Each structure stands twice: as C-alpha cells, then as structure tokens.
Amino acid sequence: MVNNLRFNNVCRAMTNNISKDHDQSNKKLILNKHTENTFTAFHQNIYGLPNKKEELLNSLTRNSLQIICITEHHLIDKELEGITLHTYTLGAKFHRRIHQWGGVCIFIQNNIHYTNINMDRYSIEKDIEICAVKLYILSCTIIIITVYRSPTCNIAYFLNNLEAALKQIYSNTVDTILCGDFNINYLNDNQNKQALNSLLTSYSLYSVIDFPTRIHNNSNTMIFNIFINKFKNVNYSVYSLINGLSNHDAQVLNLSDIIVPDDRNELHSYGEINTHSLNEFQTSLSYEAWENVFSDNDTNTTFNNFLNTFLRTFNVRFPKKRTKLRQNNKAWLTTGIKTSCNNKRKLYLLYRKVTILT
Predict the structure, then answer these.
(1) Which residues 6+ apart lie within 8 Å of 167 measured at CB?
(2) Computed from CA positions of residues 161, 98, 222, 64, in that sequence, does the dihedral angle turn out positive or negative?
(3) So where are the chain's domains?
(4) Mind listing the pLDDT tens digit for each residue in 278-288?
(5) How far apart, in Å, are the Cα atoms of 7 and each of 22, 122, 274?
(6) Looking at the DSSP assignment, which residues form a beta bridge with residue 142?
(7) 223, 181 in Cβ contact below 8 A?
(8) Burial of 95 (0-12, 13-18, 19+ CB in 10 A)
(9) What pairs with residue 197 in β-bridges?
C-alpha cells in the first residue's frame, strides 16, 4: 500500500514535470529555431508513415525545414507515390519488395530545385536501404543520403555498398549529408562503429549527434546519426525533437552558413481603402474640372482622358503598399488537433519516464 502511494505520488510529480518539460521543450525549439532562410534537415525513424503524416507536420510547425528524411516508412511503391506532405515533394525513395516494413524516403520543400540520384543498385533489403537527392540552392550544391540498416543485417554488405555509393556521388566541391538509422550504437565503442567511422572519415564525413536518439525502458542508445563535413560546415547545430510518433526521437540539423531563398512568401500589392481615404478620393474628384474629357468629340479619346484623370487621383489617394503573404497550407490543422497532438506527446513522455522507473 505504501509503495502504491509512493508510486502514485511520483507519477503525479512526474506529470507536473512532464508539463513543464513539454513547455520548456517547445520554448527550446523556438530558441533553437534557426532563421527561416538557413538550411535545415530533419531525420526520424518513424516506424510506419501511414496515419502519421498530419501529426508529423504538426510537430514541425515551429520549424522551417527544407528536407524531411524518413526511415522505416513501411510503404510499398504505390502507397509512397500517394503520400502527400503539404509544401513538400517526394524526391527519392526505396521500398521493399520481398520483406515487410523498412524503406527510406526523402521529402523536399517545393521551392528547392533538385535531382534524384538513383541508388537502387546499392540497395539490398535489410542489409542497406538507401536513397539520395542532389539539391541546388543558389550557388551551393548539397547531396542528401538517407540510409536504413537492419540490426540483423550483414555488416560487410552494408559497408561495401555504402562505400560504392559514396564513390559514385562524392565530390570535394559538393556538401554531403548522410543521415539515417544505422543500428550502430555510437554511445559506446564497438567494432561496427570503428569500421563505419573508418569508412566515412575517408570521405570527410563525421558524426554530429551527441545525444541519445532512442530511449526505451532502461536503455539509451544512439543508433540514428547524421554525418557531415564538420570542418567545412563549422556553424552547424543539432538537436533532438521528441514528437511521440515512435520510440525513436527525431534529429534536426541546421547549417547556418547555407542560405535558402524562401519563395513561399509572395509579395502582394494592395491599396488601403477606408472611410477617410474614400472621402478624400471623392473630394479630389469633385475638384477636377474635367475639361479635357468634354473638349473632344472622339469617344475613345474622351474615355481615355476620363480614365487617366480618374486613375491619377485614385493612385494618389490609395497608394499601393507591398507585403508578404505566407500561404497557409495547414488550414485543416485546427486548434483542437494541435491540442490533441500536444496532449498525446505529453502522455508519451510520461509513459517513457514511468517505464524507466518500473
């Protein structure tokens, strides 16, 4: 009985802490939020994309992401082609044909020009599932590679095929970002970690993740990773994003030196019309002599003179202003849906902490 009371008290205290952690996490995202015109990429092992895309987008509303990399989407080809994420295009994909689940894909913001890099020849279900795109952002070219490796795979096949893929696409003049689920724990030293590091450092790729990416029961692991050239991209930042969509936390990478033009903000011209400006407009028209309108017998000339006078007065009294209008592509994302998603996330965090206690 005493133990139950103690456990309940702990749970209540943790619930309060979860609420605080949730709010602090949101504040952290805002504080860490890069400026909207810098390059940012997202990766998560989502463990099944169907029925999660709306919640995924909701978890990203505070962040302006150019790239969304997904591992273990659990979809076949037709299902992948039918997936739509608002303001994003499916740029690259791999899906399984023999075994269930698995698969990788990359979504790209609509305003970014890209080409698909065919990686099918290097993909072997479970051993290495890989896809890639090449991005063209102003004068910068970036290659994004997303990889999934099953924990039971043949590590030799994985390393050999990954090296072959890197040989095909690597260039000193191009930024390369490798992310995915490697199922190699970087929190401790092991042979697989050493072998992967040995391979990637030869291509100037280094791990930038320094926090656990999977917390389950009493186990903390860092099996999801992002590799970049840290010496070329000195001003980078990474952080964990816990959205509760799976027991795999997401990772967000920002490269603040790479500027991305934001074409989603369209310039809109308008004239401000109100009671005062309307009265001023009417008064100005009443002071016009209109002599040039009635002095000519030609109908077309008379009309053109009238229109010129009218528009001149109109433009003076209603001067054009220019503003940026951001398209709201998430109008369906109501306050109720956002609240439900946040509550679900709080419950997931509570579940995770209670599971660790028990």
Answers:
(1) none
(2) positive
(3) 1-32+335-358, 37-263, 265-325
(4) 888 889 888 88
(5) 22, 51, 63
(6) 135, 175
(7) yes
(8) buried
(9) none
Q: Beta strand pairing status for 175-181 and 224-228?
A: antiparallel
DSSP H/E element including 43: strand 38-45
Query: What's the CA gap between 35 and 27, in Å, rounded?
Result: 15
- The one-letter amino acid code at 35 reads T
Identify the CA nearest to 84 among candidates 289, 305, 329, 352.
Answer: 329
The helix (run of H) or strand (run of E) holding residue 213 is none
**Residue listed under structure tokens 């054009």:** 320
Look up residue 34 and give its amino acid. Answer: H
37-263 CATH fold? Deoxyribonuclease I; Chain A (3.60.10)
Q: 115: how many CB neighbours lie within 10 A of its CB?
A: 11
User: Using CA atoms, how far apart are residues 47 and 38, in angstroms rounded to an integer?
Assistant: 28
**Distance from C-alpha of 256 to C-alpha of 145, rounded to nearest angstrom:** 20
Contact 159, 147 (CB under 8 A): no
* 194 token code pair: 């050493």
What tens digit of pLDDT does each residue of 6-59 get? Answer: 444 544 454 455 444 444 444 444 334 445 589 999 999 999 998 888 888 877
Residue 347 main-chain phi, psi, to 5 deg: -65, -35
DSSP 48-61: --TTTHHHHHHHTT
Of 241, 235, 183, 179, the closest CA to residue 205 belongs to: 179
What are the structure tokens assigned to 105, written together? 């894909």
Q: pTM value? A: 0.73
56, two tokens: 């995924």
